[in-house]
């Protein structure tokens, strides 16, 4: 408990939620009165960027919600944000990698919960795809779904791509012509 109390308010809340949702309701009840109000302290927290605009953009793009048991890692989130900011001047990719279950998805989704970042660098929104290990049929379905989402406002409805190569070509053209930024 002393270690948790030495961290920020979100750590205490996450610990409480973990107890609550992992079958330790009695222990959680003992801690309930001490749940602090979330405050950002001296530094701006990623929670501050959660405006209705951010919620809408992330929801429409399929970005995963914050997990019930959530521990802030501001240095890592800030590092991802910095890399995303670099895409404003130099096109490219930001790749987050690591072992399965280490928090890549949570960290990346958390970096996107920033109103200014989304507005400045993702004017067309965000489209989130979880690929993982897929066979060719599963990958084709994911790519067809992405094509459909990106072509949603097209005047002429497109048929879904019939194979992975066709999907890659269509996505390449969409990225170059419609979503170059």
Automatic annotation (TrEMBL):
SUPFAM superfamilies recorded: P-loop containing nucleoside triphosphate hydrolases
Any single biological process term in GO: apoptotic process
InterPro entries: NB-ARC, P-loop_NTPase
NB-ARC domain location: 75-178
Single GO cellular component term: cytosol
GO MF annotations in UniProt: ADP binding
Designated name of the protein: APAF factor
Organism: Alectura lathami
């Amino acid at each position: 408990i002393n270690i948790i109390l030495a961290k920020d308010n979100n750590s205490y809340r996450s610990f409480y939620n973990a107890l609550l949702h992992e079958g330790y309701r009695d222990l959680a009840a003992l801690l309930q009165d001490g749940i602090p109000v979330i405050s950002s302290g001296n530094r701006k927290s990623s929670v501050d960027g959660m405006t209705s605009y951010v919620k809408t953009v992330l929801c429409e793009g399929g970005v995963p919600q914050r997990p019930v048991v959530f521990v802030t890692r501001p240095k890592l989130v800030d590092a991802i944000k910095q890399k995303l900011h670099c895409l404003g001047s130099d096109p490219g990719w930001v790749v987050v990698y690591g072992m399965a279950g280490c928090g890549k998805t949570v960290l990346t989704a958390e970096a996107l919960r920033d109103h200014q970042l989304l507005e400045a660098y993702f004017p067309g929104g965000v489209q989130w795809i979880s690929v993982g290990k897929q066979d060719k049929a599963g990958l084709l379905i994911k790519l067809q779904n992405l094509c459909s989402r990106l072509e949603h406002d097209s005047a002429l409805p497109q048929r879904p791509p019939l194979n992975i190569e066709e999907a890659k070509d269509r996505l390449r053209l969409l990225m170059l012509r419609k979503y170059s930024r």
